[in-house]
UniProtKB/TrEMBL annotation:
InterPro entries, alphabetized: WD40/YVTN_repeat-like_dom_sf (IPR015943), WD40_repeat_dom_sf (IPR036322), WD40_rpt (IPR001680)
Lineage summary: Eukaryota, Fungi, Dikarya, Basidiomycota, Agaricomycotina
Species name: Tetrapyrgos nigripes
WD repeat segments: 3-34
Entry annotated with the keyword Signal: no
Name of the protein this chain belongs to: Uncharacterized protein
Length: 418
């Protein structure tokens, strides 16, 4: 199958969670949605062997004209993120306005009231990654799906709606909350609180880093939940954030996971949202202000990053890897060994007189080279993806067969088995 609906460079390509629908974005300012199911022989005439089947998009999303500047040209789309099962998507622009737009897929429109912008003159957004809050996993449920299809993903090639995650058309879309991590052209990154499908809720900035002296931030990745054993009865949970620059520097941070609101914050309904937001912003600021480790293997720019699990080492500890795509065409996997260095306790005072105690853990990181991903030449590698079992998330299965996929300027997609 092939298709051509964009009029300029394709900047991102993502599967919706059902794996039956694809989202693409482009520098031509548009988003396109395509069916990913192959055509059956009964539904179409098979083409000759030297031709491909062209699949039209089932939905095109275009930005609304600005109310303040209706004649202003829209911004090219540089990156996208899919929320939950795909009823809502986010797009970012690498132009100077740093716009982050929210789209209602089921209606096929941009939610104009929820446009956010990066702060402090950070310029364009190069990459984004969305991570859902852990509340869903603790509740043990799945996000309900709108009756228009698999999370509002649109129609299939024959004009029918994919049945994948449907619930008889009765389920209502539930709110999806999480963090959006954005790498910016000025060398900084910004973290936003995202809430969907509330159209009145703009992305709320939680944290903006200082600018890196090593060039624009061009890559970002977030790990699943990690846990360090501090004693026989105490674990510290956190996630890792990795950013890469055009100058080849990779920086790793620990993302604090604050205590659950049920045990740490007063249940008073009229103040709890404000307290939670304030606590969240302070927690992000404390954990992201100082990196765990910073390293560079060469001056080649970092194009993409992805966390992966690694086989257990000789001492029985499970490894954590970071796949690195670079402009010199020499992708590799870094091995990160985590260990606790110190343990301190501190408390913070928030509005409405609420006290929250935070256990602060200093984490040590040792970086080494786990593997070279050979086979390519000197063509830049632009993207990496990891497929397979992961030990990183709670409740997930360990297992062999983790795959790393790469794609670059030579037009070749390569698969590596760890």
């Amino acid at each position: 199958m092939s298709t051509k609906a964009h009029k300029s460079t394709v900047t991102s390509l993502r599967f919706f969670p059902s794996s039956r629908v694809i989202l693409s974005s482009s520098a031509d300012f548009s988003l396109q949605i395509y069916p990913a199911d192959p055509l059956s022989p009964s539904s179409s005439t098979l083409p000759p062997e030297n031709h491909s089947t062209r699949i039209p998009s089932v939905r095109t999303l275009l930005p609304l004209p600005s109310s303040s500047s209706p004649h202003t040209r829209p911004s090219p789309i540089s990156a996208t993120a899919i929320l939950g099962r795909g009823r809502t998507i986010l797009s970012a622009s690498n132009s100077s306005d740093g716009a982050i737009r929210t789209w209602d897929v089921s209606k096929g429109i941009e939610v104009e009231e929820s446009v956010g912008r990066t702060g402090g003159g950070g310029g364009g957004v190069n990459k984004i990654v969305f991570v859902e809050d852990d509340d869903r996993a603790e509740a043990g449920g799945h996000w309900a799906v709108n009756g228009t299809g698999a999370g509002g993903e649109g129609q299939g090639a024959s004009g029918t709606i994919p049945a994948g995650d449907r619930d008889g058309g009765q389920a209502q879309a539930q709110e999806v909350k999480g963090k959006l991590f954005c790498t910016l052209q000025d060398g900084s990154f910004e973290v936003f609180q995202i809430s969907s499908p509330s159209s009145s809720s703009r992305p709320k900035s939680l944290f903006k880093s200082t600018r890196s002296p090593h060039g624009a931030l061009t890559a970002v990745a977030v790990s699943s939940i990690q846990a360090i054993l501090l004693s026989s009865s105490f674990f510290k949970k956190f996630q890792l954030l990795a950013t890469g620059t055009s100058g080849g520097v990779i920086t790793v941070y620990a993302i604090a996971i604050p205590p659950s609101s049920s045990s740490s914050i007063s249940p008073s309904s009229h103040v709890q949202p404000e307290i939670e937001a304030e606590a969240e912003a302070l927690s992000q600021s404390l954990s992201l202000s100082t990196p765990l480790v910073k390293f560079r293997r060469s001056d080649a720019g970092i194009e993409d990053l992805a966390f992966t699990s690694l086989p257990s080492s000789s001492d029985g500890t499970q490894g954590l890897g970071l796949v690195v795509a670079t402009t010199d065409g020499l992708p590799w996997i870094a091995k990160l060994k985590l260990s606790p260095l110190s343990l301190t306790s501190q408390s913070g005072s928030f509005s409405a007189g609420t006290e929250i105690e935070e256990v602060k853990v200093e984490i040590g990181v040792e970086v080494g080279i786990y593997a070279e991903l050979t086979g390519g030449d000197v063509d830049p590698v632009r993207g990496v993806a990891v497929v397979g079992h992961s030990r990183l998330g709670e409740g997930e299965l360990e297992g062999d067969g983790t795959e790393v996929w790469t794609a670059g300027d030579d037009g070749v997609v390569r698969r590596y088995l760890l």
